[in-house]
């Protein structure tokens, strides 16, 4: 299985505080790779390094054969990395379809004059993008809200729209930053189903950061555990759950396994 992403011995510090301390992992094609750890463990910092927000002091990040270490976020996006955010980042006054269309911006190849005339290449690309967006509307079951401003929608549906906008980019790698944060049980179960469908039907590899341990252990193919920027364990969910270093990082010397009810 070829690796879509390689995160090689990355180190990142802020004013002497180590956010990422020698983290090394790879994500395979079609893999759902999860990163977990207590608050301040460095999970979001890893996402920011991958997406070009942070430049590490050491290490390399490879997307396929492309070195994206310290690359600008717009270049990383054009190369195929899409991301959702912990907090909903949508244009509340725009409709569902309009928000999804924003995910198509880096596929646009026509200029301002062609857009005004809406002819030739501009018309073809616009229609192609709209067709792709309608596929995502169906995939994420958003049809009943497609013409409504997202600011009027329930929180769980807004999170689904943000996921759809990332899918509209047609990514090679999808970064999911706490996709079920703030959701109720029904919304969480729906989002879990969509995440599995993305892996199984669309074959898009994903990196998942999430505090819901039950969700992580049910969905992930492999799990990386961090503690204050240091990798503690990496492997299959059942192996990570039983790892004594992971148990200590989360619960102290004794206690139930990660993901189990105390």
UniProtKB/TrEMBL annotation:
<protein>
    <submittedName>
        <fullName>ABC transporter ATP-binding protein</fullName>
    </submittedName>
</protein>
<dbReference type="Pfam" id="PF12399">
    <property type="entry name" value="BCA_ABC_TP_C"/>
</dbReference>
<dbReference type="GO" id="GO:0005524">
    <property type="term" value="F:ATP binding"/>
</dbReference>
<dbReference type="InterPro" id="IPR027417">
    <property type="entry name" value="P-loop_NTPase"/>
</dbReference>
<dbReference type="InterPro" id="IPR003593">
    <property type="entry name" value="AAA+_ATPase"/>
</dbReference>
<dbReference type="InterPro" id="IPR003439">
    <property type="entry name" value="ABC_transporter-like_ATP-bd"/>
</dbReference>
<dbReference type="InterPro" id="IPR051120">
    <property type="entry name" value="ABC_AA/LPS_Transport"/>
</dbReference>
<keyword id="KW-0813">Transport</keyword>
<dbReference type="InterPro" id="IPR032823">
    <property type="entry name" value="BCA_ABC_TP_C"/>
</dbReference>
<dbReference type="Pfam" id="PF00005">
    <property type="entry name" value="ABC_tran"/>
</dbReference>
<feature type="domain" description="ABC transporter">
    <location>
        <begin position="5"/>
        <end position="253"/>
    </location>
</feature>
<keyword id="KW-0547">Nucleotide-binding</keyword>
<keyword id="KW-0067">ATP-binding</keyword>
């Amino acid at each position: 299985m070829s690796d879509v992403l390689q995160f090689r011995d990355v180190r990142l510090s802020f004013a002497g505080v180590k956010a990422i301390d020698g983290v090394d992992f790879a994500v395979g094609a079609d893999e759902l790779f999860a990163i977990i750890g207590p608050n301040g463990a460095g999970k979001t910092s890893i996402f920011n390094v991958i997406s070009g927000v942070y430049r590490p002091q050491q290490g390399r990040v490879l997307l396929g054969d492309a070195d994206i270490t310290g690359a600008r976020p717009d270049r990383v996006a054009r190369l195929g990395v899409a991301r959702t955010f912990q907090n909903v980042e949508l244009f509340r006054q725009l409709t569902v379809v309009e928000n999804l269309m924003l995910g198509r911006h880096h596929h646009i190849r026509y200029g301002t004059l062609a857009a005004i005339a809406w002819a030739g290449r501009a018309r073809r690309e616009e229609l192609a993008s709209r067709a792709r967006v309608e596929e995502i509307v169906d995939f994420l079951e958003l049809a009943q809200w497609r013409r409504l401003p997202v600011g009027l929608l329930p929180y769980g549906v807004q999170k689904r729209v943000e996921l759809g906008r990332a899918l509209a980019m047609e990514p090679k790698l999808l970064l999911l930053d706490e996709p079920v944060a703030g959701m109720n049980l029904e919304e969480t179960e729906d989002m879990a189903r969509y995440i599995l469908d993305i892996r199984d039907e669309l074959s898009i590899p994903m990196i998942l950061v999430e505090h819901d341990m039950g969700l992580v252990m049910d969905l992930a193919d492999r799990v990386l555990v961090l503690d204050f920027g240091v990798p503690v364990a990496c492997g299959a969910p059942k192996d990570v759950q039983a790892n004594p270093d992971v148990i200590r990082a989360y619960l102290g010397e004794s206690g139930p396994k990660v993901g189990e009810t105390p």
